[in-house]
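Students often ask why we bother encoding 3D structure as a string. The short answer is that it lets us treat folding as translation between two languages. Here is a chain of 452 residues written in the first language.
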Amino acid sequence: MLAVVGACTPATSEPPEPDPGSTTAVPTTEPSATTLDPDPDSSIGTSTTTPATTTLDPDSTSDTTGPPIDPSVTVELITDQNRHHAEMHGGWGPHLRAPMLDDRGTPWFAYDGGPSVLDNTTIHYARRDASGWQTVASQPHTPGVQQNAAHVLRNGFIMTYAVDVAGHFLEECYFDTTDPTYAACNAIQIGGPYATPPSSNYVGAALGPAGETITWFTVVGAAGGTGQWIYTYDYGGGWNGPVVSVLPGWNDYAYVRASFRGPSEVSLLGQAYVGAYPMGEYAAGVDELSLGSPATFDTLTPPPPAGQVRSSADLWVDPRTGDTHALAHLAGTLTYHYLPAGAAWSDYSDPVATLDDLGNARFLHDGGGPLVLVGSGPAGLEARWASAGSVIDWSTASSLPVAIPAAGFEAPSAIYVMRPEYQTAPVSGLHFAVCGQYAVADEQIWYGRLEL
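And here it is in the second language, the structure alphabet:
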């Protein structure tokens, strides 16, 4: 079943089975019939290729062998129907979704639908085929989902996690990429029906190298008081936990990025908030977590003169070295942090550099190649890359512009990147997506693929 009662020992991850007869607290538990997009051609985008403006030096920026190629990027429209509203950003939660490959190597992208900031009603499923990107199916969330949902592609199934604030449960939805009619949403059970506490928000999810799934949320403290961060994890036989961490004086811990250091070992970076909103202060909280244990947090240090790290931007653990690269948001710029394998954040909290020419960026990597930053700044959207393996001087990295043929993408509201945390199939290629600028083009999501 989707949610097996009781804690379990690690087991091989298997595709979920439908649960039409669930007795959980979901208002309706029969499998939801998916609906085909009435106008699939509306989500097909033309392809545009941007050549590089710099020359790749294979001796310094790539660990791969073979003749050098001219770097380029191809972009295509995924959809112009992304959830957006005057009250909200259509690019909320850039860490919650990604271009994902299924077991056949077909790209997928899941995005939200809903009429307002209080109603996230629908999951839309877009697939790329020979005709381009098409939204091929949709299914409804349970009625009480209002905020964003986290999506991963596990063994051929797109799994979606969200907090139902009306029913007080953690929702799990599944969608079979080989059979669009095989889909439903149910409440997660953890040793029986599990009720999320009041003020639960800021969901997230990630996949690990041993087939484990982790999903989490924060409980916002009352009146600016201390909150909690809660997670549960599943090796394929049922959900374990929940594991509750009392935050170190923070009101909440939101927008959490996760990257696995190894089986059951997770690195975390998120936005901490201290005090009652909007009179409090932001921080960037980090942790090296072993599944089953509560989180114990450290805080990244802003650069001098005294400033404030506003939020998390991205986190990536190099699978070859175990080193961690992190990006934190300042006001209009980023700090770059580096943690050697085996070291503690408490000894490496200071930034290596401030990236004054980038206001937003994500890490992108494929196999033995360079580490890529897809980011935006005063010069617009771009990709830059350098050899992974140690701390990186991003000011000397090779780069090329990423041109989206639509207004509002010089400073996109979200950047999404393909990484192993989002799919069980091997990552092949440098895939990313971007959501347009808030109130300008955040109903649009464009896909890009880099060739380096």
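Translate back mentally: The domain at 48-451 is CATH 2.120.10.10 (Neuraminidase). Keep this in mind for the problem set.
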